[in-house]
Amino acid sequence: MTVILILVTFAIFLTIDYLRQEKRVEAPANAQLAKTPAPRMLPKFISGFELPENRRYHPGHTWAVEETPNLVRVGLDDFAARLLGKIDHIELPKRGQWIRQGQRLATVFRDGIKAELLSPVEGEVTQINEAALGDTSLPGRDPYGQGWLVSVYSPDARTSFRNLLGGSLARSWMAEAATRLFGKMPALAGAVAQDGGLAVHDLTAQLPDQKWGDLTQEFFLS
User: Fold this and answer.
1) Rounded-to-integer distance, Cα 55 and Cα 159, Å
2) Sorting pLDDT into bands at 50, 70 and 90, what band is 56?
3) Is residue 11 over pLDDT 80?
4) How large a percentage of the chain has pLDDT more than 70?
5) Residue 123, strand partner residues
6) Contact 170, 57 (CB under 8 A)
7) Where in the chain does DSSP place strands (E)?
8) N or C, where is the chain less crowded by C-beta within 10 Å?
C-alpha cells in the first residue's frame, strides 16, 4: 500500500510539473493573444429570427447591451423588426428623459396605426439614434447594429439586467414566441426559409391594420 501511495504521489508531482512547463511555454503566446480584440459574437437563429447571445432581452422584444457598467444601448429585436415591417415614423424619448423598465420606450407608426415598445432598462436617456429617426427602415434592416434606438445611463443597470432574458431562457422564449405567432397565422410559417434561415423582413404585410395592431400589442406587451 505504501509503495502505491508513493507512486501516486510521484505521478501527481510529475503532472503538476508538466502543467507548469506548459504554462511557461504558452505564456508569450497568450500574452500576444490578449492584445487581439475579441471577435464579434455571431447571432444565433431561433425559429427564423436572429438572437445574438451578447445581449439581454425584455419579454416585449427589446434588447439591452452594456457599453460601460452604467451605460446601456437599447434597441428592438429581430422578431419585433420583422413583425413591425415597413415603419413610417418613430417617436423616441428626449435626451435627459428618465425611462423606467417595462414602460414605454418608443412609439412606431405604420399606416396610421401605432405600436409601442417597452424599455428593457431604467435610467436617463443620454443619446438618441438620429440615423434611425431619419431612415425608419434602419431598425428593420439592422436591429442589433446601426438600427439601435437609444443609449441610457442606468445607475442600477445590474438590477435591470437581472430582470431580462439571456442564454437558454432567451432561446426558449424566442422559440415560444415564434410558435405562437405562426400558430395564430399559419400562413406566416411559410415566410421562414426552409433551411432554417431568417424570416422575411415584413411578416405581416398582408394583414389588416387592426390585426397587425392586435399582434403588436400581444407580443410587445403594450
Assistant:
1) 15
2) very high
3) no
4) 75
5) 99
6) yes
7) 43-46, 49-52, 56-58, 62-68, 71-76, 89-91, 98-99, 104-110, 113-118, 123-128, 150-153
8) N
Print burial letters for 12-48: b (CB count within 10 Å at least 16), e (below 16): eeeeeeeeeeeeeeeeeeeeeeeeeeeeeeebebbbb
The grid cell for 38 is 475579441
CA-to-CA distance for 79 and 170, rounded, in angstroms?
A: 12
What's this model's pTM, rounded to 2 decimal places?
0.77
Asked whether the beta carbons of 82 and 139 are under 8 A apart, the reply is no
Beta strands in 77-221 (DSSP E): 89-91, 98-99, 104-110, 113-118, 123-128, 150-153
Cell 426552409 sits on residue: 194
CA–CA distance, 57 with 65 (Å, rounded to integer) = 9
Pairing of strands 104-110, 150-153: unpaired
Q: Does domain 43-220 have CATH number 2.40.50.100?
A: yes
Structural domain boundaries in the chain: 1-35, 43-220
Residue 67: half-sphere exposure toward Cβ, Cα within 13 Å: 12
For residues 195 and 25, give the distance between their C-alpha atoms in angstroms, rounded to a whole number. 45
